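The following block was generated as part of the benchmark described in Methods. Ligand: adenine.
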Amino acid sequence: MRIEVLTIFPEMFDSPIKSSLLGKARDAGILEINVTDIRDFATDKHRTVDDTPFGGGAGMVMKAEPIDRALEKIAEGLENPRILLTSASGRKFDQKMANELSREESIIIICGRYKGVDERVLELHPIEEVSIGDYVLSGGEVAALTMIEAVARLIPGYMGKIEAGENDAFAWGILGFPNYTHPQEYKGLKVPDVLVSGHHAKIDSFRRRSALKKTLQNRPELLEKIELSDTDKKFLEEIKNENK
Ligand code: ADE
């Protein structure tokens, strides 16, 4: 997969894309990430990328021209790239979208800043606005990195034995189950017996029940979106009764 990032702060990507699994995936050739400075496509000597909004009001708007020029240059070598613009006003990014994007050949992510981008850029290019959550960031760079990390780890070959996607939160449509590692007892707290029993069916059942419990506590609305088995329903009844 190839990811092209357009930003006015390219240095914000240096360390994250060199480190950790992202860096390894790049070195292994599974993932190509290029970062382009939008200022390189400005047309004046001050390399201006923003200006005041027509109609007045506070804040600055990212100019259409530098982004349009950068997009035209970058899209040249790509066949049907998905073009995303980070924006608090976008469609909400989630695991489903991460899965969908992980199957793309190429993605271009434009990092919005200030009040946003001149709307004409969205008329000139098939751009999807994407938000990582209902809060406002100063810019889209961290949002872009969030999406890159979530998408990259789903590319086949990215995750080795170090991480296994099948146990992720959301892999079942609900939150993840709690995990424990050595030592078996810490400050008087023991790892649940079932996890050291070697009984795989019981371990699976314990994990499913724990994941349902965490989901009921932290994100109950997710339970309405998945199909619950009879055993799930029984577990949830028990959990609700425990809490009474
Ligand atoms: N830019 C500002 N806020 C944002 C958000 N929540 N998601 C994506 N980009 C943003």
